[in-house]
Amino acid sequence: MKINPSPYILFAFGMALVGCSTEPTTTPEEKDIIEAVFASGHTVQDQEYQVTAKAEGYLQASLVQEGDNVQPGEPLFRIAGEVQTQQLAQAQAQYDDALAQIAPTSPQTQQLRLQIEQARIQLTADEKNYQRYQE
User: Fold this and answer.
1) Would 133 be classed as within a structural domain?
2) d(Cα 104, Cα 101) in Å, to the nearest integer?
């Protein structure tokens, strides 16, 4: 059987014609992105500080906003401290009373001076009695 080469030649020639055609050109276009990515998870802060007060009271004012940079010793909040105000007033009254009690003219000081004087008189009397009974 003899093979006819003409169909193969026609096929090769047809492929060459189709393969040599010009490529269509495209131009870039600007379009909005419609795709969105949804992911679940949680965020973790880089640094966290716990702020506590050394005194009791109600928060009266916040002097800084979240995210502000602060320096050591800078006040962050103002606390209404009625309890501390009362304690301070009571301590001041006790201090003033103690100062009054140690004043030279206070009744307690005068009473202690009288007791000292009475003790000296008693000592003198006891010394005389001791000397009398020694002879």
Assistant:
1) yes
2) 8
